[in-house]
Amino acid sequence: MNRRRTTLLSLTALLTATLTTLPTTTPTAAADEIEQVKNGTFDTTTAPWWTTSNVTAGLADGALCADVPGGTTNRWDAAVGQNDITLVKGESYRFAFKATGTPAGHVVRAIVGLSVSPYDTYFEVSPQLSVSGDSYTYTFTAPADTTQGQVGFQLGGSADPFRFCMDDVSLLGGVPPEVYEPDTGPRVRVNQVAYLPAGPKNATLVTASTQPLRWQLKKADGTTVAHGRTVPRGTDVSSGQNVHSIDFGAYRKRATGLTLVADGETSRPFDIDASAYDQLRLDSLKYYYTQRSGIEIRNDLRPGYARPAGHVDVAPNQGDSNVPCQPGVCDYTLDVTGGWYDAGDHGKYVVNGGISTWELLSTYERALYARTGQRGALGDGTLDIPESGNKVPDVLDEARWELEFLLKMQVPDGQPLAGMAHHKMHDEQWTGLPLLPSADPQKRELHPPTTEATLNLAATAAQAARLYRPYDHTFSAHALAVARKAWTAALAHPDIHPDPNDGTGGGAYPDTDARDEFYWAAAELYLTTGEKAFEQHILNSPIHTADIFVPLGFDWARTAAAGRLDLATVPNRLPGRDKVRQSVIKGADRYLATLAAHPYGMPYAPDANLYDWGSNAQILNNAVVIATAYDIGGASKYRDGALQSMDYIFGRNALNMSYVTGYGEVNSHQQHSRWYAKQLDPSLPGPPDGTVAGGPNSSIQDPYAQSKLQGCVGQFCYIDDIQSWSTNEHTINWNAALARMASFVADQG
C-alpha cells in the first residue's frame, strides 16, 4: 500500500534478485551506444530545440544561451527542450550536459520524460547553476517505451531574470548502468545516538567470518571498559550480509564518545545516557510547528525556519479560505485554512491527518495513564510554539492546529452527504521543488468525501473531546458533536471509498475497506461517552477479535490497532477488556520474536523482504505495540524490546546511518521537501532536527531512486537525496510514530 502515488514498478526483479550488499544489476552494455539528442553541441544552429514564448534563445560561443524572464512562478513557466526522443523500456541512458547561469545560484530542473499527456517524468535533477558545478552526468533506466520522449530544462520560478547557457547535451542509450555504492562506513553498526544505562545494548558486525570474534568497548580516551565475543548469525536476508551480533548490555555506566571495536573495525561514536532522548521527545514534536499551514513561522521560535504564512489568500496563493470542490463534486466552497502540510508537498489530507493527530494525542494520553508516563514533559511551554504559556499542554495546542482543520473538512448541513468529510484538499497539479508554501500559485480543490475520511474525523474528534475537556469545554463539546455527526453519516454511507487514481497534485491515499476505521471510531466514541451503542458496535465488529498485529504494522490505511491500543490502555468498562489487553500482549510477543530472530534487532520482517513505503514508521509503530505491552503488564522484556527497536532507526542498520535529522554522526538530512530544500537552494533550511525519513522502500517509485537503486535488496533501497520522494520523504504520520516512541524511551530514562 503506497502512501502517496499509486503507480508501482514491477517487483519481479526484486523478488528474484540475488542477495548482496549492493544493487545486483550487472553492468552490460547494449550492442550499440546510440545518441538520442539531436544537435546537442550547438555548433551552427539551435534547431530542433524549442523554447517557451517568454524565453529568447540563440547561439553564443558554441552554446545555446537563453534569456529567462523574472517573475515566473513554476519551473515549467520558462523552458528549453527537445521533443521526439526515443526511449526503450529497461535500457540504461547516460544524461549529460554543461550548464551555467548568470548571475550564479539559480536552480533549474533538468528532466527526461514524456512530451505528451500524462507528461510523466522518468528522470529529473535540480542543479544549482555555477554553484554545484558546470558539468553534469547521470545514468538512469527508462521505465517505459516511447517515441514521444522529451529532454527539457525548466527555468522558471525565479523572481529575477537571468541568462542560462547549455552545451554538450547528450542522452546516450545502450550505456552500462551505473552501479551505486553507498558509503556504509565501518562494519560495526551501532545506535549512534545513545543507549540507556539500564537497557539493552546491541550492535551488528558485518564480516566474512563464520566464527566468533573478539569485541572491545572503548571510552573516548581508548581505554577498554568491556569485552566479549560476537555471535555469528549467518546471512541476513534483509541486507544480504553475513553478520554477527554483539551484546554489551552488562556495561551500565554513563559515558560519552564510546566506540565498539571488532574485526579490525571501529564503530561510529555513541553515548550511554539516561537523558539522551529527552531532546528528541521535544524535537520530534517541534517538527509540527514548521509544518503548519496558514500561519507565519516565527524566527524567534524556530531560528532559520522563518517563512510567510502559506495559503492565506495572498498572491500568488489562491488560498484555503474559500476552496471549491473538484469539478462536478460539489457546488459549495469551504474555509479549510490551518492544519499541517502533510509531507514535502502542500497538500492536506484527512486520512493521514487523522492517524497523525491520534498518535500525538495518544502520546499525551499515555503520559496520563502509564506507570512511567511523565505528563510534565509534554506540558505547557515545552515546545516553544505561539500558544506556549496559555496553561494548556503544548502537545495539545499543536495537535489542535490540525484538529481545527479536520473539523472544517466536514460537509455542511443541507448539502448532499452532509456530515461526511472530504478525503483531502490540495493543489490542482503537482508543483516542483523548491517552493515555499507562500509561493504556491496552484488552484486548491476539495476532493470527494469518503467513508474512511469521515471515520478518521469521527475518531480524532471523539478522542479530542475527552482530552481537551479540562482546558476548553466549548471546544470539547463541539468536537464531540462533530464526531457524532460524522459517525452517523458514515453509517449511512459505509462504502464510499477514495478513487485510487486520484493522484494528480497530491497523494491518492486509496483504501477499499472501512471496517477498521469503523472499529477505531467506535472505540474512541465509546471511550469518550461510554454509550451502549458504541460498545455494541465494538463487540459486534469482526475486527474486535481479529489478529490485527500483522508484520507490516499499522498506519493510515490500517487503523484497527489505534482502536485496540486505546481500548487496552485508556480506562473503560468494556466487557471482556482483559482479552483486549491480552491481544496487545500477544501482538507484542510476535514482534519480539521477529526482533530476536533479526540480526539487526528490529521488529519488522516484511513478506519476501519487500520493504514498504515508509518502512521506518512501520518499525516504529510495531515498537509502539511492544511499548504498550510494557505499559499493560510491566514485563521488562517489552521495555527492552521497545528500546532495542530504536537502535535500527539511529544507525544499527545496513546503511550505518541514523534516519533522523540531527541525530547520529551520519544522519538523513536531505529529505524530500519543497521548503526544507537546502540541497537545491542554499538560502533555504534543511529539515529540522528530529525529522525522520521514510526509509527503505523496495518499490523505489521515483526516477532518482530508480536511477541509483535498481535491484536493491531490502535495507539498501534508500538514498538520502531530496529527489527521492519514495524513499526519503518526511510526513506528519511518520514523525508522529517517532514522537510516540521518543517519548516512551525518554520516560524510561
Features:
six-stranded mixed β-sheet, alpha+beta, 749 residues, six-stranded antiparallel β-sheet, 14 helices, globular, disordered N terminus
Structure description:
The protein has 749 residues and is of the alpha+beta class. Helices cover 26% and strands 18% of the residues. The protein has 14 helices and 28 strands. The strands form seven sheets. Strands 1, 3, 4, 6, 9 and 11 form a six-stranded antiparallel β-sheet that branches. Helix 10 crosses helix 12. The N terminus is likely disordered.
Oligomer: single chain
Estimated helix fraction: 25-40%
Total beta strands: 28
- Rg is 26 Å
How would you summarize the topology of this molecule?
Blueprint: H1 12-16, E1 34-35, E2 50-51, E3 56-60, E4 63-68, E5 79-87, E6 92-102, E7 109-114, E8 121-125, E9 135-141, E10 146-154, E11 162-173, E12 188-189, E13 194-195, E14 202-206, E15 214-218, E16 224-229, E17 231-236, E18 241-247, E19 255-262, E20 265-266, E21 270-272, H2 278-286, E22 323-324, E23 333-334, E24 348-349, H3 350-369, H4 394-408, E25 421-422, E26 424-427, E27 444-446, E28 449-450, H5 451-467, H6 473-492, H7 515-529, H8 532-540, H9 560-569, H10 577-597, H11 615-633, H12 636-649, H13 703-709, H14 732-748
Parallel strand pairs: 13-21
Antiparallel strand pairs: 1-11, 2-5, 3-4, 4-11, 5-10, 6-9, 6-11, 7-8, 7-10, 12-14, 14-18, 15-16, 15-19, 17-18, 19-20, 19-21, 22-23, 24-26, 25-28, 26-27
Helix pairs in contact: 2-14, 3-4, 3-5, 3-14, 4-5, 5-6, 5-7, 6-7, 7-8, 7-9, 9-10, 10-11, 10-12, 11-12, 11-14
